[in-house]
Design goal:
The complex is a heterodimer of chains A (189) and B (81). By secondary structure, chain A is mainly α. Chain A contains 7 helices and no strands. The radius of gyration of chain A is 21 Å and the shape is elongated. Chain B has 81 residues and is mainly α. Chain B has one domain. Chain B is 74% helix and 0% strand. Chain B contains 4 helices and no strands. In chain B, helix 2 packs across helix 3. Classes of the chains: A mainly alpha (189), B mainly alpha (81). Chains A and B meet through helix 1, helix 2, helix 4, helix 5 and helix 7 of A and helix 1, helix 3 and helix 4 of B.
Chain lengths: 189, 81
Amino acid sequence: MTEKKKHTLDPNKWIDLHSDYMYNYTITRVNDHEIAKDLVQETFFSSLKAMKNFKGEASERTWLISILKRKIIDHYRKKNSKKGKAEVRMSFYENGENKGKWIEERAPSLWGNAGEEAIENSELKSALDHCIENLPEKYRMVFLLKTVQNYETEEICNELGITSSNLWVIIHRARVQLRSCLEENWFGK
Amino acid sequence: MIDCSKASSICNKNQYCEASFLDKLKLGLHIFLCKRCKLYSEQNELMTKIFKIHLHKNKDVKLCKEDKNALKNNLEKKINS
């Protein structure tokens, strides 16, 4: 049996070889050019410091991404602690005799302009972008990874260190919030 | 019988085809009896459609030359320091 080839690191080539890939990876998760750029840069700096810990078992890119992942998670943790709990409007009574029922003014109402043609309207796209923008950051990330990037539930859970029931609570709240936002800004008009 | 909050949460899971058979059964029964959740469920299907039409995977987004050069300069400084 041949011995596995050990991977090596060459920081001078990092930008050319990996920066686009890492930027792409980050922008799908944080949705902001400046923040994504900063996180990629910080990742390179931290990687430089951590080079002595590199054992050569993973490829250079895999190793860099593992550091980037931690940076992204830290970014969200910081964000959450700064702003306190991100505000989510609840649509259901949380206790009392009506627990679990729709809150009267948040209950779904009939939508106008919901026909096949209407939903392809580009103004709807703007309304949707606005509503997604208004989701708490963590919700937005989980929602987009699941809905748009089609990630497996398990993949997202591993990456963010959350359980699958956490994930579904987030998706549920994100969608309930998006529904009421679209109703306010588009379908209710 | 499940409440509206639970029904809508199963309904959301179902949009990703990840609701269990038993959950779908519970949802079906709830929707049969609850007009609001029936409406929510229909609107939810429509939302899934809207997401498919309007939200797309990021195609390869690249850093522009200036950004890359800035990254390079900063990294070089760190390497040499």
